[in-house]
Amino acid sequence: MLLTTTLTGIAIIVSLVIAMSSPVLLVTSSDQQQEALAQQVNNTTIPITTTQSIMPASNNKTFYVFSAEVEGLNQTTTRIPPDIFTPPIIVINRGDSVAVNFYNMEQEIEERHSFTIDVQPYSVDIDIAGGESGNATFAADDEGIFPYYCKYHLPTMVGQLVVLPPTTQPEQQQQQEEEEHETTAIVEEEQLSTTEEEEAGEQQQQQPLTVTTDRESYSTGDTIVITGTVAERQPGSRVSITVLDPQNDIVWRESVTVTANNTYQLEIEAGQPQFSISPYAIDTSGTYLVTASYRALRAETTFGLTSEEGG
Ligand SMILES: [Cu+2]
Fold first, then answer.
1. What CATH number should be reported for the domain holding residue 288?
2. CB distance 148 to 159 below 8 Å
3. Could you read off the pLDDT of 261-307 as tens digits, one per residue?
4. Ligand 1 center–CA 158 separation, angstroms
5. Residues 219 and 267 placed together within one structural domain of the fold
């Protein structure tokens, strides 16, 4: 008898939870059950608490991203690699804390893949061998669409990090926007009161990020040496370097490790593509733009190329 009573009690609590989440069920319940429900509601509030805690508001977003392959792609005729990301799109809100767990699904250890974001303010580089996994966490500080890519499988292995506005109430949002406008106004005032000379002096003292090439211009076959410095370094810090050709096509995209004395270096042979499948190389005459990205920082320089093929 005691056992039966206990079981009945559990059954009532279970049906109470179901009834609360579905008003239709409440309507179809028998009178007896409804009486029992009314008693339970008076006696305990446990099921109500349980129902509320099922959906906690959280700004922590965790994603699992995998390397994948398009089956049946003919690399020889298409001249593109079959490698892709799954998923190709990650959607978050500004203010979120994001964790990305990246899995290299290759069986061969030499088949590396990377999950790389190097558009400010984001700086992520999970670069792993076949069969490995790696992770990165970062705060979603800026709204917008930011590309993520694999350093080894452009142009196909790319994706988009979509950062939407925060999911706050309209009143809160308005307040935030007003605060942002005030901050912007103050910054503008400061910039106006600073003379160009003062700015130049400050930059020389503590350049947070620099980039330079060893020469101003090169010819086909020359080695282009890109070097630079960072002011603040942590073990494993990497600088991402992008080179745009005179037509604004990306001809090189690579990240390099910052050494213990806060410098970095990348050597590129003019005329050679970064990957055998890449349609672009530093091989047409004109001015090239070099951009170095490091955390939220960005630095630029240019160099010229005189193509021996007369291109
Ligand atoms: Cu890859």
1. 2.60.40.1930
2. yes
3. 899 999 999 998 887 767 788 999 999 999 998 877 888 999 999 98
4. 9
5. yes
Quick one: 64 and 150 in the same domain? yes
Rounded distance from Cα 68 to ligand 1 centre (Å): 9
Name the one residue in this structure whose structure tokens are 């298409």: 78
Instruction: Kindly state whether residue 35 falls inside one of the protein's structural domains.
Output: no
Separation in Å, CA 257 to CA 124, 133, 214, 239, 241: 13, 20, 19, 6, 11
Rounded to 5 degrees, φ, ψ at 21 are -85, -10
Sign of the torsion formed by the C-alpha atoms of 11, 12, 17 and 21:
positive
The answer to whether position 78 is within a domain reads: yes
Q: How far is the CA of 278 from the centre of ligand 1 (A)?
A: 13
Cα of 306 from ligand 1 centre, angstroms:
32
pLDDT digits (tens, 9 = 90+) for 87-143: 999 999 999 999 999 999 999 999 999 999 999 899 999 999 999 999 999 999 999
pTM of the model: 0.41
Helical H segments across the chain, by residue range: 2-21, 23-28, 31-43, 46-53, 75-78, 170-193, 196-205
- List the domain range (segments joined by +) for residue 180: 170-205
Contact 292, 302 (CB under 8 A): no
Total domain count, the chain: 3
Determine the distance separating the centroid of ligand 1 and the alpha carbon of 212, expressed in angstroms: 28
Query: 53 in a domain, yes or no?
Result: no
Q: What is the CATH number of the domain that holds 93?
A: 2.60.40.420
